[in-house]
Each structure stands twice: as structure tokens, then as C-alpha cells.
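Progress report, Aim 2. The chain analyzed during this reporting quarter is listed below.
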Amino acid sequence: TQTITIGQKLKISISTFNLFKNRNKRFEEQVQQQRFSTRFFLIVTLISLVILVFYISFENITHTVIKNNPTITEFDKLYQEYPNTIQCPCQTYSINYEEFITFQPHLHSICSSTFVDETSQWLIIDYPQAMLSGNNGGPTYSARKDDFRQIGSPFFQLLNSFCNLSSKTINAELTTFYLSRFITLNLITFEQFQTQMNQLINQFIKNTARSFINSLFFVENMTAANMLVSAFQSDSLFSSASPIYDEFRYPDYQYIYDRIDQIYNSNESGIDCDCQSTPWCIQQAIIYDLVTRTQLFSPPGIFVGCYLVEAVLQSDLRCFFDIGCLQQLIDSLSLVNISASDIILNSTASHYQEKSSLLEIVSNLMVEEWNNQTFYDNYFNICQPSVCTATYISQGNIVYIITTTIGLIGGLTKVYRFIVPMFIKIIVHKQLIEQMNVLNQKLQNTISQTLDESHILIEQLWNDISTNNENNINYLLKEHEKNLNEKRMNNIKKLKYIKF
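Predicted C-alpha cells for the chain:
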């Protein structure tokens, strides 16, 4: 017996492999068609598999990361990995600022000093009692407009008022601010929290200071616009005249008063300033000797002017930071039981310059430091996200590629097993029709050719009969019959080997 090699067995197995066997279709033509369908099915499946593997390998896949009840550390880690897609919805999305912001404002050192203490001598600076007389309590001699004793007590009282008003304004604004709410639908990071809180706090401080100074300027402008007269007559003087001046117009008055605007001269500009033109006219304040009326001391940075408020706002506190200047001020005012070393202001404790005007200080609500603090932990605990989700895009790993490919190719094979046999059947049927058409055409050509040859033979027979050539006639008839038999056999063979 002849031995069959493994290669031959493999070749036979491949050539006879059939995925579409049907016990009801066992004819050779039907089995051959099933094998064609099997080969076509395998080719299409292999091509689909290659395409799917390449596509899935380079496809961008969206992955979702979920973390339930994250801590601050876990949230920070997730944010570092997925900063653009992380979402952590807050359970409480509306939070009062007081829950995570605090202020402990520290005012200028002048506000906590003895200079504005309501029991100190600085708030009752005045002329000696012996020099006060009359109903208005003014000095017995004509005081000069730049005399510091006239404004000494009001000067420090006004400083006290600025401190108290600033403190009350800050407390009122903070109460409103604390009750305002921070709306946050999603948890924000520590850096985002700090940035937003810093912007919020800075805006709050600016708005509060602007509102305060605008209110102050509103009062100042109303005073100047209505030409109200200062109690110190620092903006204008009144003069009186006899009623003879116009007895017909003022018959019931003993005196007629006329207003004379004060003129100030700033040592810095050297230009006269009329209070009628602007209420901001100032002049260096001077302490005079009450007996000789000579100049004792000019406290640097302290001015007198049309109105007390404008004069104080343009003054500064440099003298209160200088022990020599302060002691000379104490001595000139004859204040008792006061030592400059005990009450001097500490310049290192202030971020303002010694020559910073009170307008600058008051414009900042007399505040040295706001001492604000923000607490991200409090915000996080109140927000308390129950879940954090993040998404990222990457190419699939080998496990994803294999599982996805198997899933897709499984579905495709089911479709192919249904479609491929139908497709092959259509193709075979089409080829069969084409073969039949070709065969019919050949048969027609053969018949036509045979008829033509028959006509020729008949003519030859006729010619031979005419020539009485009997032998030739017999020979031609035999040849003609032989040719017809051969052609008939060939046509039968062709019909026999048509493949269905």
C-alpha cells in the first residue's frame, strides 16, 4: 500500500474542510459549493480579524475612575493625576464665609495709645482756666488761627472718633460679610480655594475702605457746599457794624454781621489759600507762649486749616514717633505727669511711614493688619463630596484588545455564516447561467457550421451524381456520417462535464 505523508493528509484536510455540511445536500456539486463557502468564510473572517485588531489597538478609549467618600489626600492625588476632568459634587454647595474665613483686624497704634484715651489729658487740651471768660468759653485774648491750643483737644478727639468709627464700620461690614454665602457646586482644590479667597478678601477690604472714605468725603463736601461756619471760626471771621449802615433794611437788629474768609499760607507751597476757594487750605500749627505770645514750638506734621477734619486728614503723626519732638510738645502744652518715653509710638510696629498722612491711614480704616485666615479643611468638610469621578483617554491594553476583538468577531462570524452561503450560491448560479449561455452559443455555431457543410456535401453529391461517380458518392456519404457522429459525441461530453 502507498503511505500518505502528513503534508498530504493536511492538504486533503484543507481541501475537504467544510463548515456548511448539510445531510440533505450530498451531491458532488452541492458539497463543492459548501467548500467554496467555507474558504470564502475563512478569508473574510481573517480579514475582519486583522482590521479589528489594528483598529482596536490604535483606538482611544475613555476610562472612568471613581472614588467614594474621598479624603483631602485622596482628592489631591486624583487632582494631580486628572486635573482637567475630575468632578467632586458637594453635598453642601452653599456655605457661609464665617465657616472658613476669619478676620482679627489690628488698628494703628494711635488707636490703642493714651493719645485717644477718653480719660487722658490729650483730650482736654485748652487754655488755662484763668484765661477763659465769657459765655462762649473763648480765651481772653485774641487767639491766632494757627494756635494749636484751639484745636488740640478736638484734634485728639477726632483721632479717637476715627478709631471708633473705623472699628464699628469694620465690625458691621464683617457681620454682613460673614453671613454672605460661598456657592460651589463642585469641590475646588486648595490652590483654587486660596486664589478665590484672596481675591474675595482683597475686594472686601477695598470696598469697605472705599465706602468708609466716601462717606467721610460726602460729609466734608456737604459742609463746604453749605458754607457751614466752623465753631473755631477757622474758615471765616464775623465782623459787626452799626445799624446805621442800613437802618431801613435792618431796623430790628442791633448789629449787622459780615463774613470774612480766612486766608492760610502753607509753608511748603508758600501760596496763600482762601477758604472760599477750597476747604483744604492748611497752615503749620504753632504753640505760643501765653504771656509773651511768642512762638514756643511748631509740632511737625500737624496743621490747622479751614475745617478741623480737612486739617487733621492732611496732618501726620511723625512727632508721636519721635521722643524728642513728643517731649517738647508735652512741655510746650504744660502737660503734667506725662513722660514721652512712656507714650511714644513704636514705628517698627506699623507698616505706615512716620510721615504718612492721616488721610492715607483713615482711607485704610486705620488698619495695620487685617490678620485674615482661611481654612480649607473646614471648607472641605462642609462640602463633603460623597464621590469623585475622573476620566482619561488612552489606548487599550492587550486584555482589552483581545476581549473586544473576540466579542466583535463572534458577532461578525454569525452574520458571515448566514450571508456567505447565500453569496456563494448567487455567484455559482451566475456562473452557471454564463456557462449555459456560452454552451448554447457554441451549439448554435456548431449546428450552423454543420448545416453549411451539409449544403456543401449535397452540392458535391449532386455534382458527382451528375458525373455518375458512384464510388465518390459512397465515400462522401460515409465521411459525412462520420463527421456528424464525432460532433455529436463531443457535444454530449461537454454537457456531461458541466459543474453545478
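Residues 101-374 form one domain. The chain is about 50% helix and 10% strand. These observations will guide the mutagenesis work planned for the next reporting period.
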